[in-house]
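A quick aside before the break. I want you to see a complete sequence-to-structure record at least once, exactly as it would be stored in a machine-readable document. Don't worry about memorizing anything.
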Amino acid sequence: MTKLTHLSAAGDAHMVDISAKADATRVARARGRVAMAPETLALAIAGQAKKGDVFGVARIAAIMAAKKTSDLIPLCHPLPLTRVAVEIAPDEALPGLRVEVEAGVTGKTGVEMEALTAVSVACLTIYDMLKAVDRAMRIEGVELVSKEGGKSGDWRREDK
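That is the input. The structure line, written in tokens, reads:
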């Protein structure tokens, strides 16, 4: 079984010491979705939500969340992100909105948590922007899709 790096030998939670690790280019991709009524999706696409531009606000929220991940997740290191790209696309078949984030850094630790946090906050923002018309929306499928770089190498979700 793989050792959990955020636990000391005594089993106490601690921040991992990354000082001896070499800088490497690292990229992580995450995704999630917000399922909603077809009428709610149509409202978002038409730009007619009372709170404003659902896509634009959620995109900015995702970027801000990625930058603040270490303030939200207790054992995360603050990272000098080099890239946060956010895609929000309608999915008529769901129906709802799909969110994908790619985060990048050149540093000593990965950006998986930043990508996942960004997706989560984008989905929550979409919910907030549209909840007045559809409280039954569901946030689903928040997951890491892939990671590249670092000592542990590349990883890709098989069911991607």
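Two observations worth writing down. DSSP finds four helices and five strands in the chain. Helices lie at 38-46, 54-67, 69-72, 112-130. We'll return to this after the break.
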